[in-house]
């Protein structure tokens, strides 16, 4: 893939000081760190190393990566390494892709309570799938579920949803056999939607009763139990979208599928088209119109504001495993499932190739082919420390994920 002409980092650098003047006091520590990391990624500010080809003597400078999980440049490398580790956990069965979406009425609650609301969203989706699958009226089996949280839409507006990759079948409740699913999805979509809605709203109401929700600014009225219950009643009248896609077959296909979602950031550099007169233009898909490709132009400040809304709280796990894939017993359960299926672990030859980009702060691996002669392998011959660059004033302490300036 060719290097994009414009990168998110360049947009941030161009409007960094102006953005901080307007929104600096409202940034959480995680958002401020993401802002700085993305601006400095693969620049002299993080240090780097000099590479040389032993064959032709060609030299080039490579700067270190920031490693931030919201950085579009770093996540391609993280995805490749993560996928390689996941390959051994894939079974020779179809996999279904299910998407659970949070109604827009609850968006402000999510912005002010990301850890509570996004965590509840992921748990409710997983419990819906695993409990219904275990029900004898449906599959009567323990399935495996891998979840990935996304909080954005293609236009960078808030759109919290969870992508779930689900095994097409599962282990019988007594553990004696593998129960295969049908060609269509294992569970009816209407039932999934209603159970998911019930579980999420019950969990949200419990969090409210325990005083675990922040309700500042526009949400202050919801501190009254009557108003909060009215909001929940209103969402019951709203369609809770659960979308089920066709099953994918074969471990290699599943890996490619996972690569689209696991380490995706709110926007990739390759979607950016131009930055001119303080305006950012980028491509986006309008799924309300069948995925039609469209062009959007935003003020650079607004672009960065939307981008930082999707920075997750520190320590929040956005890729989770449930059922057969739960970390506590994954190896043992999958080994037994594989034996019941008469299959062997996936061969190393089918794994995705490692990206040659180094870990944050580390020298590049000697596997990068020389861009000059195409024969030699670039090796590190020297390293240099980070240069001190001042990007702006330190942020104040009044964290608010919403950037609500009113």
Keywords:
14 strands; alpha+beta; 406 residues; Replication Protein E1, Chain: A
Descriptive notes:
With 406 residues, the protein is of the alpha+beta class. The chain has a domain at 74-266 and 310-350: Replication Protein E1, Chain: A (3-Layer(aba) Sandwich). The chain is built from ten helices and 14 strands. A five-stranded antiparallel beta sheet has the order 9-3-6-5-13, with helices on both faces. A three-stranded antiparallel beta sheet has the order 2-1-14, with no helix packed on it. Strands 4-7-8 form a three-stranded antiparallel beta sheet. α1 (8-23) packs across α9, α5 crosses α6 (189-209) and α6 (189-209) packs antiparallel against α7 (225-236). The chain is globular. The relative contact order is 0.23. Mean pLDDT is 86; it is low at 345-366 and 392-402.
Q: How are the secondary structure elements laid out?
A:
Blueprint: H1 8-23, H2 29-40, E1 48-52, E2 59-63, H3 72-86, E3 95-101, H4 107-112, H5 114-134, E4 141-142, E5 144-152, E6 158-167, E7 169-172, E8 178-180, H6 189-209, H7 225-236, E9 242-248, H8 251-261, E10 272-276, E11 279-286, E12 292-299, H9 300-308, E13 319-323, H10 330-341, E14 379-384
Antiparallel strand pairs: 1-2, 1-14, 3-6, 3-9, 4-7, 5-6, 5-13, 7-8, 10-11, 11-12
How many DSSP helices? Answer: 10
Largest sheet: 5 strands, antiparallel
The H/E string reads: HHEEHEHHEEEEEHHEHEEEHEHE
> Total number of β-strand segments?
14
Uncertain residue segments: 345-366, 392-402
**Under the CATH scheme, which class of the domain at 74-266 and 310-350?**
Alpha Beta
Q: Termini separation (Å)?
A: 43 Å
Content of β-strand: 15-25%
Structural class: alpha+beta
Task: Tell me the helix content.
Answer: 25-40%
CATH topology of the domain at 74-266 and 310-350: Replication Protein E1, Chain: A
Taking all Cα atoms into account, the compactness measure Rg is 23 Å
Strand order of the largest sheet: 9-3-6-5-13
Which CATH architecture of the domain at 74-266 and 310-350 would you pick? 3-Layer(aba) Sandwich
Instruction: Write down the overall mean pLDDT.
Output: 86
Shape: globular
